[in-house]
């Protein structure tokens, strides 16, 4: 570890980098050890800075907060603002699902339970925002944690998902078996969901 580099990084700069790391880590979070390695700083220093950041966020009345769950830190919205997020999710202007959200929803539907990292491996791009959109619309939700390093969150579809697409159960979905040996499963399922969601695109 380069102690000289740690000494050259000011506390405000360290806070700025940590905030960015928490943001890009999404709902999987990041632990103090990982942050310390990235910053080339002492873990105790990182923990102290994060605790100070938590206090500052609280004192300043920020819309985001830093929480510690299962040994990892992550950025989170405040629970007292939940009803505002619900209004946003169900407002007419937000009625249309984006292409990214449809692709992500298709993958979750046919491969649930599935982690964010697995979704990103299939899509080849970050899925944080798409997942957040789907969770906000109550189409997907956390259903547990994978038995893997970091215990990543597993996602699955909700009852609201069935209502949204007018399905009685997941058994009413187009049969996926015909695509199981097809390397373009993501594309095929996306087309299926695009067709299913057409009535909602004009809302």
Q: Explain this structure to me?
A:
The chain has 203 residues and is α+β, with helices and mostly antiparallel strands. It has two domains: 3-77, Arc Repressor Mutant, subunit A (Orthogonal Bundle), CATH 1.10.10.10; 82-200, Arc Repressor Mutant, subunit A, CATH 1.10.10.10. It contains ten helices and five strands; from the N terminus they run ααααββααβααββαα. The protein has helices at residues 3-8, 11-25, 32-39, 43-60, 82-90, 99-111, 116-123, 128-136, 159-165, 185-197, and strands at residues 64-69, 72-77, 114-115, 140-145, 153-157. It has a three-stranded antiparallel β-sheet. The protein has a two-stranded antiparallel ribbon with strand order 1-2. The protein is elongated, with a radius of gyration of 20 Å. The N and C termini lie far apart (55 Å).
Low-confidence stretches: 1-6, 199-203
Count of distinct strands: 5
Ends apart, CA distance between termini: 55 Å
Strand content: 5-15%
Oligomeric state of the chains? single chain
Average pLDDT reading: 79
């Amino acid at each position: 570890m380069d102690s000289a580099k740690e000494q050259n990084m000011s506390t405000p700069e360290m806070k700025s980098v940590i905030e960015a790391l928490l943001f890009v880590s999404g709902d999987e979070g990041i632990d103090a050890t990982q942050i310390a390695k990235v910053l080339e700083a002492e873990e105790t220093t990182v923990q102290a800075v994060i605790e100070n950041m938590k206090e500052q966020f609280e004192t300043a009345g920020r819309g985001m907060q830093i929480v510690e769950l299962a040994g990892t830190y992550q950025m989170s919205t405040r629970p007292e603002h939940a009803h505002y997020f619900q209004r946003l999710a169900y407002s007419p202007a937000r009625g249309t699902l984006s292409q990214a959200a449809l692709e992500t929803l298709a993958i979750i539907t046919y491969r649930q339970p599935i982690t964010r990292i697995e979704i990103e491996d299939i899509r080849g791009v970050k899925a944080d925002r798409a997942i957040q959109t789907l969770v906000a619309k109550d189409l997907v939700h956390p259903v547990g944690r994978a038995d893997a390093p970091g215990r990543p969150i597993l996602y699955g579809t909700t009852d609201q998902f069935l209502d949204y697409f007018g399905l009685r159960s997941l058994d009413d979905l187009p049969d996926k078996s015909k695509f199981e040996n097809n390397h373009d499963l993501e594309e095929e399922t996306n087309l299926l969901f695009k067709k299913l969601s057409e009535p909602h695109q004009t809302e």
